[in-house]
Amino acid sequence: MMQILGGILYSNEILFQGFIDGLVYALIAMGLVLIYKATGVINFAQGAIGTFGGFVMGMLMVNYGLPYWLAAILAIAASAAVSTVTELLVVRRLFTKPRLLLFVATLGVAQLVALIQIWLPTVDERVDYPTPIKGYWEISGIDILLRGEQVTVLIVVPFIVIVLGYLLQKTRFGLAVRSAADNPGAAQLAGISIRSVSTQVWLIAGVLAGVSTLLIGPIYQLDAGGVGSSLGPELLLFSLTAAMFGQLQSFPRALLGGVVIGIINRLVLANKGKGFLDNWGIGNGSNLLAIFLILLLLMLFINRGNKTSEQSWVLTPRLRSAHKDLVQYPLFKWVSRVGIVILALTIIGLPWIVDKPSRLIAFAGVMIVMLVVLSAVVLTGWAGQLSLGQYAFAAVGAFMTSYYTASLNYFLALGIGILWGILAALIVGIPALRIRGLYLGIATLGFSLVAGRWILSIDRLNTNAAGGAKVKPPVIFGRYDLRTDKEAYYYLCVAAVAVVIYLLWRLRHSGIGRTLIAVRDNEMTASAYTISPTRAKLTAFAVSGAIGALAGGLLVPATGSLRSLAFQPSESLLVMSIAVVGGISSITGGVLGTVFLVGIPTVFESSAQVRLFSSGLGMLVVLMYFPGGLISLLHNARDTMLTWMANKTDWSPAYKGQSEAIWSRSKKQSDVDTTIPALETSNVSVRFGGRLAVSNVSIDVQQGEIVGLIGTNGAGKTTLMNAVSGFVPSEGEISLHGKSIHESASHIRARNGVGRAFQNAKLFGSLTARETIMTALEARERSLLLPSMLGIPPSPFVERRKRVEAEEIIHYLGLGRYADQLISELSTGTRRIVELGALIALDTQLMLLDEPTAGVAQKETEAFGPLIHAIRAELGSSILLIEHDMPMVMSISDRIYCLESGSVIAEGSPDEVRNDPGVIASYLGTDERAIQRSGTSTSE
Length: 940
Hints:
The protein is of the alpha+beta class. The protein folds into 3 domains: 3-298, ABC transporter involved in vitamin B12 uptake, BtuC (Orthogonal Bundle), CATH 1.10.3470; 359-641, ABC transporter involved in vitamin B12 uptake, BtuC (Orthogonal Bundle), CATH 1.10.3470; 676-930, Rossmann fold, CATH 3.40.50. Helix 16 (359-382) runs parallel beside helix 20 (486-508) and helix 16 (359-382) packs across helix 24 (569-582).
């Protein structure tokens, strides 16, 4: 009996059906949790592995007449085998790589599994999916009709949960899994084979995926041959959301989450077109919208563990720079230009080569795919925001362009469609400010599903009587009908790609492009360099959304009717595959990937299945053997050729020597009141949960003073410096030149003159030394988005000034030989010098140096003290220095503070602190060798 509660229609039957569905979702979620706990990766192939077993089940029973139980065992074994082979061939090879790299590899596995399923014999008859228990029973009093397939779920799922719980809690296998998840290093020392545990975990997860599909097939009343196409992304989204209830760690909460998701899904479907959904105008795809909103809430407000917090979010290994000498070789730039010219001439000349005008539509489609791939390069490759929903932006652009084309000029309609794409991307980007990496990938997948099934299904956009958006044939320049003039349409798409590549090239070589990569590589250091991570991420989303919407808008002339089903989530996964295969951090890589995986098959008129296979297999091969993508192979070939040519001609580079002063030094320091302390903290405290890391610390740094901060590891030195920088919340008061900065964000404090050098000196591994200093120069003059992309004033003049100023700093510090090398290729000592150069570029009034000689050889350490004195004299900066090298810190500091357990225990001159009994007992000890270095002086 249907009832109404708060405008929601429900019945016991609906709630019970949702409960049954939820148990099945929970099974897949447990497989996801199991793999995540053991390997730290979300297995995106879990749904595909399950549906593969489900398809095998139907094929064996219908085509070959096998009995249910034998077919079920073989089907489950098929899913388990695919999962195990995935672990042996893919996971093991990538096990030591960043988790995000392994996550993307599972996308390739999912595509290959789907293709294998397509290549299997089709099911001969259209019959209902089999179930071992048939019939139905009416339960009186509660109005529930219990069907055989539901009884199967009620028997199988609790049994599996009990067995799984026993295995994980009461056996040596479970102990091994928990140990491997908590501390892999210690587990290996205890004799546990991490690889063996991983294989067993993936096998069990495959079994769970297969069983869940066998259960859900009859529940959803699917036919035996259509289980693969009927489930897939939706099943994975529901299961991922269930797993998020347990933060990808807890089996009981994943079980609870599955039940909640199942019930909500059934309730929303039951209210479709009526009740409160009808009042709000929500219809098709409303169940996906509800689950997506739940997923976002879970990601935004549930406190996730720190399992992946220290993982690298760079999708692929960085492209190594050309050898530092080759950058100056005269032919270096011409090699790339020749390749671009050859490719451009080939693309432009296609209409003269193609004998069928209709084939130009297919090649125009390649250009459109290239645009979507380039949008992924910006968002995922440059900004590090993993997106599995790029085609959703294209869908928004296509439908909105089609809608406005009915009453406006095509180009005007296209522009409005692009604006809608930007808006959609910004809406998706807002949660991305709190969600990162793997979690953002899940969220964008959900958005892709919601966009296709709900947003683009509203009546206003579906103007065609048969469904979809009716497209008015666009005519441009008063003479070219893009529907019939295939050549004009092709050249329009080519022109769009050329313009986008030019704009992105300018963007990458501007301050905006450098800040995107800086935030991706090291968000904390980027904030310390006055960069707002929020602005950088939203900028990337906006640019990516605009390019994606442009691609969608260009699809409009090629069709008479747009349908949302044309923009499936699988297309977004294909885009990610193409970008990774080509080299996702490079514009050229995006072009190469598209040409290789889409263009070449189009030339030979390959089927969509062949393209999907090549992308899935290609992505796996590249990830496992050429992690940098096709572009890395191209770079290697270029460097080999140029090195040979340089050796043959006896060419050698020339470098400028070190200069005496920094000509472009800012005059910001001249406005500083020297009678006020540069830094003053009053009763600053920092808590992490219940632990007091810093307790009521009050220190000051006078103008032009170097103050040392010493103490044992864990004394609170770095935490205090993080509080001053704004990277951790604190109590008390922090003032810079007499003005409170306690409430300011970290990048605002940096703009006010707080410069931070970090203990690890990682900086931005994908930028060169020159680009790193130019990134810091953003503090002096901020780059603007549109002028940077279009190359219009003031951008060219700003870039020229930054390059000149960066060159002066590079020569002042003697970094000329390393200027064009990636930071990741430099030694620790050289990175420290680059970091000091960045602080100079920031016009730092207060330098916060955290162990600047850590990991540096003694000779470099001895040279570091005079360099710091020289920079202080040149810039007039004040310096707060954390250092464990006592000879160095004692020799260069004017005053020293010593911390113990988060509190100041001593303050004074180096001699006073050196002889303080509390400092001797706490830190220095009585051996003079701890504070003296042979062959050095204790005074300047």
